[in-house]
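User: Predict the complex.
Assistant: Input components as received:
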Amino acid sequence: MAGGGSPEEGGDGGNKVNILIVDDQNENLLALEAILQDLGQPIVKARSGDEALRHLYFEEYAVVLLDVRMPGMDGYEVASYIRSRPKSRHTPIIFVTAFDDSMERVSKAYSIGAVDYIQKPINGDVLRSKVKVFVELSLKSKSLEREIAERKRVEEELRASNKELEAFSYSVSHDLRAPLRALAGFSEALLEDYGDRLDEAGRTFAERIVGGAKQMDALILDLLYFSRLAREKVTLEPLDPQVAIRDALSLLHADDSEVRVEGALPPVVGSKVLVTQVFQNLLSNALKFVPKGERPIVTVRSEKDGERVRFWVEDKGIGIAPEHQERIFRVFEQLNHSKLYPGTGIGLAIVRRAMERMGGKVGLESAVGAGSKFWIELPPAEAARKSGEPQMRPRADSARNS
Amino acid sequence: MTCGPSFLLVEDSEADVLLFRRAMSKAGLNAACHVAEDGAQAVSYLSGEPPFSDRTRYPLPSLVLLDLKLPQRSGLEILRWIRRNPGTRGIPVIVLSSSSEAEDIQRAYALGARLYVTKPTGSARLRELVGAIGAYVADPEPGLEKALERFATPPAQKVTGQARP
């Protein structure tokens, strides 16, 4: 009960540690108990070595106060049993010795495994401070244990939810795409094989089915990619951004537009696949978001300030108002009407996650009507080479853990 | 009846089979396409067990197209069986799956798939794929990898995205 005061029942379990006092004389036990009561921890009394060992078998103790001279099993013998058991191997023992005990006995006590000793007649303050040290030590290690257990639990939960996510992705990949394939495939077949027997409205309806199914498939693929991006291993290595940009452009339809790469772009450390993907998404946006009928003009350039290389992808397109500039990096955010600018709304979320996985950054400068300047930052390749491994390690590790 | 080039499509989805057959006729493909609806049927077919014991009607294919997600015995199990069975060991297997998950891709290649192809959505690309398969079955000389270069996902590819049109 609250304020009840019986220390042995110390209920909350978290902030209490037990103290064991061992002496064959009842009045000694009572005296020790009186001295240690102020520490506010449960005190367990044992009148013999046997009884002490029994307690130690069932409970953990912060410290044992052990009288050396006891009939039957003496303090030394009890101490060596305590040390021989795995559960109490590290339990601190303070020997309580008689005033006339020789140094020889004291050193024997240490050799058996005492951490300290105190002589009778006992000075209450001294004993209290000695025991307090071990009580605090034990409390601290208990709270550490709790912390470790908590961390383990969180890790376990994370692992479990990761597993679940994987299973979810698996079923989305396999099962959700199949009916979409049928939708897109058969509505296209309908148009191709029977289009001439449909009137204008009929054909439009079928085209809408094709468009919807394909849009949904693109969404599913982008979402799967986005979730995979969080789970899969990322390998960081020196790479040539020119190659990444060339590969990215080859996957885009940029024939009727102008993409200028200014100057030589310095090599950086990143994942080839991810950097290509990032450029692909940024370039695709730069080419897409221009006023209708205008020819897109995109510039790629770089800046270097020793520790980071910043690449700019600049367009002269419709621009993004400052209040929307954070939102666009989230999944499914589309600022513009999808009729004018079709897309899945996942591209920039993929860019941000990919940059995070590589230990890099992404940002932009833009205003409505003034075009957009997106930038990404990565560490330069030669800095990693000059100072060797240590520079690359933390980044590679942090990426692996996330 | 002469035994021209043929291939075996292991696919449980009727819709996919229908779309595949349509793409074949659109692509003007002459090779015979036999269909196994599940893993057990694929094993029976390839072993020449009844009802597939007539090798004139059910010839040993020069190529197997294998779906991964099949009822009962999975595509990967069938793949392992094909690779271990002396009678089928030499037949190249293309895994044709909905999934572009790295795990599926890696396991398929680890078990001996020659190529991993993600099923295309939309008739135009399916027709191109079927055309490329047909060209390979008719003339395997340039090699399977070359023939399906544009469709296959290579092994050991890490995080990858789909090419966005």
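Confidence is low (pLDDT under 50) at residues 1-12, 387-402 of chain A.
Let me know if you want any component modeled separately.
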